[in-house]
Specification:
The complex is a heterotrimer of chains A (305), B (174) and C (189). Chain A is built from 12 helices and no strands. In chain A, helix 3 packs antiparallel against helix 4 and helix 4 runs antiparallel to helix 5. Chain A is globular. Chain A starts with a helix and ends in a 5-residue tail after the last helix. Chain B has 174 residues and is α/β, with parallel strands linked by helices. Chain B is 27% helix and 24% strand. The model of chain B has no long low-confidence stretch (mean pLDDT 85). Chain C has 189 residues and is α/β, with parallel strands linked by helices. Chain C has one domain: Rossmann fold (3-Layer(aba) Sandwich). Chain C has a 5-stranded parallel β-sheet. Chain C is globular. Chain C starts with a helix and ends in an 11-residue tail after the last helix. Classes of the chains: A mainly alpha (305), B alpha/beta (174), C alpha/beta (189). The interface between A and C is medium-sized, with 30 and 23 residues.
């Protein structure tokens, strides 16, 4: 580990961080405008999310104790660390360290931080929201893991940039979207669960449990949570692009793929109501798991795809 | 319509045969109102409940200040035979007491607290009759009585706005 | 001596600049807590949906008082509701604003002779802007929101500072009308 490696790694990491924040926040605003046009109205401006975040950071909030403050910082720090490892196009911050399992573990740090600070705020609704979020995680992780383990088994590498590189060897026909279509559909459904979009919006549930874990946040903690939410969305969608859509050779293609996936997810979420938490688990443990096991069987034993 | 009138007529005949009805009135086509004496009310309500009028829609009270009496009105409803019955009785205004009907209709618990808070009628047998339900920290006489001066109370507790110009005159008036 | 004076001046300029930027952000992204007190709340869904879209001004509904910037007092305030509105207003994080709809917050409106409806809201809570009409049409509501945005940008919406500085006067008025502000009721024990 020489100093050059670490320094270039950190610089690339910061570059990825800044790109992720600026791009994802702008895309949130653009998506709000698209959804507004879907409803036959003008939406807000495309930079509205920036104004929301900076307004939240400029308010004077209250504090419920050090667990509450520390939890938010831990969540934000964990998610920022995860973003730095994500390969974007050809920029990989730390060469051999963009393993798939790093994301699984570091994501848990973010969730744990939010759970800690939600419980530290003392409101029972926050506890309910956190319980629902973790239950939903149990739901969507299992089919997703089955599909990704099948991909890792077939490709022989668990490094994200390696998987992306294997998909880029033959043009569009070698993407996992074409080789494993059932797996991509299951992956997309699990992506909707990860993003927290309707119908899997149970853990925020604005009118039911008064926005779940975020019920006691005002001011700066809310701003930090919003930034964390943008980073988490970036990680999830980049993961989907690298695993199933063949990464990207060019920043323009990355942006186009990202936009298509995110706007498609938002438009689908506008057409649904919200599931209850037992319906979420029942849904994930029916067809997605069956299809995931079927696809894994085809890949591992049938050698198709 | 004919069947409805037959139903109403049958009902009135039935009730008049069993109880001592003071008067019968027909406010609308599918509504009947019976006036009973204080002692007959509970048995009449029990009979009507067992005959199918299982829902107590509301219990309300009318203040006849000139006759010095309160009139309690129970409105009950039947889902199979859709006739709305008003069961009425008069009680004394100075010593407003009545026995509770929560043994017949358990939901009357809250209606009786309502009438107690707003009119001052005491229902014996209702355990929560003194807990506040609608009015919090109330410090005056029961507000829906006719001798309660609402404007004077309101002006004393919630001061009116002082206007510097008189907006009640139209433009062009002197 | 001159060194100390310089040190005092610099924070003022930075503070003013920072306030100018913050007011731009606060004016263009207002989150509202819809405390639908009375009848005027019927006019809010019209302002939020497709025809008179409120989201293009940057406003959106939020679920809890802690996350909201503006509390919309739509309609008459009975004594019980006023206690809860005060409770919600004190939970909001500063800077916060209050918009009152209709004449009921000015002089009691059509409920002026009731035993349980207060007559002047600005004796108990500081109000930034009133919107006229009984009830105000959605065009009037949107106009009122635009005026609120102008007020925030020009630093005139300082109701929360008035509440903080004159807290004793507001509290005395509240106790005269309400008796007690925090009350235990049997459904929230």
């Amino acid at each position: 580990m020489d100093i050059n490696y670490i320094l270039t790694g950190m610089l690339t990491g910061f570059g990825v961080l800044v790109f992720a924040f600026v791009w994802q926040t702008s895309l949130s605003g653009i998506t709000r405008k698209v959804v507004g046009r879907f409803h036959k109205r003008y939406g807000p401006k495309w930079y509205q999310e920036f104004r929301d975040i900076f307004k939240a950071m400029s308010k004077r909030g209250i504090t419920h104790g050090w667990v509450y403050d520390f939890g938010v910082m831990m969540a934000l720090g964990g998610i920022m660390a995860t973003v730095m490892f994500m390969p974007v196009v050809t920029f990989v911050a730390f060469g051999q360290l963009d393993n798939f399992f790093i994301y699984v573990y570091l994501f848990a740090v973010g969730m744990l931080g939010m759970a800690m600070s939600a419980v530290g705020s003392g409101n029972p609704l926050a506890g309910i929201g956190v319980m629902r979020a973790l239950t939903q995680m149990v739901g969507y992780e299992v089919p997703f893991m089955v599909i990704v383990l099948a991909i890792i088994f077939r490709d022989g590498t668990s490094s994200l940039s390696g998987i992306a590189a294997i998909q880029q060897t033959g043009g569009i026909l070698t993407w996992n979207l074409v080789k494993m279509p059932i797996g991509t559909i299951v992956g997309f459904i699990c992506l909707l669960g990860m993003l927290g979009k309707k119908p899997f919006e149970t853990f925020i549930a604005p009118a039911e449990i008064a926005s779940g874990p975020m019920v006691e946040y005002g001011g700066k903690q809310l701003g930090m949570l919003m930034i964390m939410h943008q980073f988490a969305t970036f990680i999830e969608i980049s993961l989907f692009i690298n695993l199933f859509l063949g990464g990207a050779t060019n920043i323009v293609f990355f942006i186009i793929k990202y936009m298509i996936i995110y706007i498609l997810a938002s438009l689908i979420s506008q057409a649904f109501g919200r599931f209850k938490i037992d319906q979420v688990i029942k849904y994930f443990y029916r067809w997605p798991i069956v299809l995931a096991i079927l696809q894994a069987g085809l890949v591992v034993w049938g050698r198709i795809g | 319509m004919n069947s409805m009138n037959n139903n109403v007529a049958d009902l009135v005949k039935d009730v008049e045969a069993r109880f001592n009805v003071l008067s019968v009135d027909y406010p609308k086509d599918d509504q009947v109102s019976f006036d009973f004496d204080n002692r007959d009310l509970h048995s009449a309500l029990s009979y009507l409940r067992s005959a199918g009028w299982i829902q107590l829609s509301i219990l309300s009270c009318i203040d006849w200040i000139d006759e010095n009496e309160f009139q309690l009105v129970y409105i009950i409803f039947n889902w199979e035979n859709p006739i709305r019955i008003q069961v009425r009785t008069r009680i004394d205004r100075k010593e407003a007491k009545f026995r509770t009907i929560t043994s017949i209709y358990p939901g009357a618990k809250y209606y009786e607290r309502d009438v107690h808070e707003f009119f001052g009628v005491e229902f014996e047998g209702n355990p929560d009759s003194n807990k506040q339900l609608f009015l919090e920290n109330w410090d005056d006489m029961p507000p829906l009585r006719k001798d309660f001066d609402s404007i004077a109370y309101s002006d004393s507790k919630y001061p009116k706005r002082e206007y510097k110009t008189d907006f009640s005159k139209k433009a062009g008036d002197k | 001596m001159s060194k100390e004076i310089k040190k005092v001046e610099k924070p003022e300029k930075i503070k003013k600049g920072w306030d100018g930027i913050s007011n731009y952000f606060r004016a263009n992204s207002i989150w509202m807590l819809m405390y639908c007190t009375g009848c005027c709340a019927i006019e809010l869904p019209q302002a939020m949906t497709s025809r008179y879209d409120m989201e293009r001004l940057g406003m959106g509904p939020m679920a809890t008082p802690r996350q909201a910037d503006v509390i919309l007092v739509t309609g008459y305030l009975s004594v019980k509701t006023l206690r809860r509105v005060i409770y919600a207003y004190e939970q909001m994080s500063e800077p916060k604003y209050l918009v009152a709809f209709g004449p009921c917050a000015i002089n009691g409106g059509i409920y002026y002779d009731s035993h349980a409806v207060i007559k002047q809201l600005d004796q108990y809570l500081p109000i930034d802007i009133y919107i006229a009409g009984c009830m105000p049409k959605p065009e009037a509501v949107m106009n009122g929101f635009k005026d609120l945005i102008e007020m925030i940008k020009s630093k005139k919406a300082t109701g929360w500072r008035k509440y903080r500085d004159n807290n004793a006067w507001y509290k005395a008025n509240q106790i005269h009308a309400l008796g007690e502000v925090r009350i235990k009721d049997e459904f929230h024990e």
